[in-house]
TrEMBL record:
Record-level Gene Ontology MF annotations: allantoate deiminase activity; metal ion binding
Keyword Mitochondrion attributed: no
Protein name: allantoate deiminase
Alphabetized InterPro entries for the sequence: Amidase_Cbmase (IPR010158), ArgE/DapE_CS (IPR001261), Bact_exopeptidase_dim_dom (IPR036264), Peptidase_M20 (IPR002933)
Domain of life where this protein originates: Eukaryota
Keyword Methyltransferase on entry: no
Gene3D superfamilies: 3.30.70.360, Zn peptidases
Keywords on record: Endoplasmic reticulum, Hydrolase, Manganese, Metal-binding, Purine metabolism, Signal
Pfam families, per database record: Peptidase_M20
Organism: Salvia splendens
GO process terms (BP): purine nucleobase metabolic process
PROSITE patterns (alphabetical): ARGE_DAPE_CPG2_1 (PS00758)
GO CC term, one of those recorded: endoplasmic reticulum
Amino acid sequence: MAPIPHLSVSISSLFLLLLTACTNGFSEEKNLLHSEILKDEAVARLFELGKVSDSKDFLERTFQSAASVRAGNLIRRWMEDAGLQTWVDQMGNVHGRHEGLNPREKALLIGSHLDTVIDAGMFDGALGIITALSALKVLKIRGMLGSLKRPVEVIAFSDEEGVRFQSTFLGSAVIAGVLPVSTLHVHDKSGVTVQGALRRNAIDISEDNLLQLKYDPESVYGYVEVHIEQGPVLENVGLPLGLVKGIAGQTRLKVTVKGTQGHAGTVPMKMRRDPMSGAAGLIVLLESLCNEPESYLSYDSQCAASTAQSLAGSLVCTVGEISTWPSASNVTFTVDIRAMDDLGREAVIYEFSSRIHQICDKRSLLCLIERKHDADAVACDAELSSMLKSAAYAAVRPLGGDEPDNLPVLMSGAGHDAMAMSHLTKVAMLFVRCRGGVSHSPAEHVLDDDVWAAGMALLAFLESLV
C-alpha cells in the first residue's frame, strides 16, 4: 500500500485519533483536525507576519506605519483566502466578513490587533487574527461557511498598544463608539496627528465621519477574542487554553515631585528638599500598599471585607517610568494600578494619594498627581463564555486534555480590545498558553500545538453557529 503523502503521524497515533473520532463523534476528515491549516499554515503565517516590521533589527509595527499598512494588506489577502469580503475602514481597521445564511441576523465579531510594541513578540494580537481566519478557512473548505446562521466578521484592529500616540484602543474604540473625536488631533513625537497619519496613507477622516464608524449595537451578537495569556498560569497547570472571566480595571497616574536643587556637599541633610528621596519613598509606599491593602485601607459599608479579598487576588501596582528632567529639582514617575474590583481600585488610589501629600508635606516637597487614563473592569459574558468553554473543551479533549470543569478560568491583568468592545456588545475571551508567561518581547513564544488547539477551539465555536 502506497504511503499517504504529507501524513506525518504513526500508525498507532492514527489509530488513537480514529478511536477518539469514533468516541467523540468526529468525522474521519475532522479527526485529522485540519492540522495543515489550523497548525502548519497558521504557524507559518504568524512567522510571516512577524517579519513585517518597520525595523530591521526587531519587530515594530505602530499605528499607520509603513509596516502596519503592509501587514494589513497581508491580512486582507488571508481574509479573502478564507472566503471573506474585505475592506479597510477610516481608522485603518481591516475587516473580513461572511454574511452566512441570514445577513440580517446580528453578527458575531472576532478580532485582535495587528500593531505591536517596540521590540515585540510575534504572537501578541496576531494570534487572535490568524486563528480566526484559519478556523473560517476550514469551514470554507468543508463547504460550511455559507451555512453559518449569522454573519461572522473578523477585525484586525489598527491600534491597541497605543505606542505611537499614547492613546490605546484607537481601532476598537472607534468601532465601539467610545473614541473621542479630539483623538484625531493628538500628535506623536514628530508632530504628526492621528488624522495626519491616516491621510498619509490616503485615508481621509474628519470628526463627523469618525462618529459614523461606530457599529449599531443592535447589529452585533457578541465579540470573541483569542489572545496569548501574557502570564504563567496555563504553563504551570499544563494546559494550552483557559477561559477569561474578566479584564482588570486600570488607572494610570503621573506623579510629579518638586523640591529644591541643592549642592551635594554644601546643603546640610536637615535642610535638604531632595525630590528623588521623596519619590523613592512614595514608590516603596505604593509597593507596600498594594502588597498588603488590608493593612492600609479602612473598610465600611461601601468598602467591605469582600473588597479586600478581591484586591488580594487581583491588585497589581507598578511604576513604569521615572524621570528627573529638566533638573534634579523635579522628579516624575508613572503609576499603573489594576484590579478587578473598581471600588477597591478607587480606594487604593485615594489612600495612595492621601499618603503622597502627607509624605511630601513632611519633606517640604510639592507633589502633583494627574490621572492620565481610567478604564473600568470588564466582566466577560456568562452565556458567550459558556459556549467558548465548551468549544475549548472540544479542542483540548482530542489532544489529551483535561475535563471541562478543570479548564482554568483566569482574570486578565492586561488590557485588550475586548475592553473597548464591551461598550458595544457582550464579550468573551480565550487565553492561549505562552512560554514563561513572557510577552511584549522577542522571547514571546507559543507552541505549534497550542496554536492548533486555539484554532480548533474557534472552529468548534463557529460550528455551533451552523
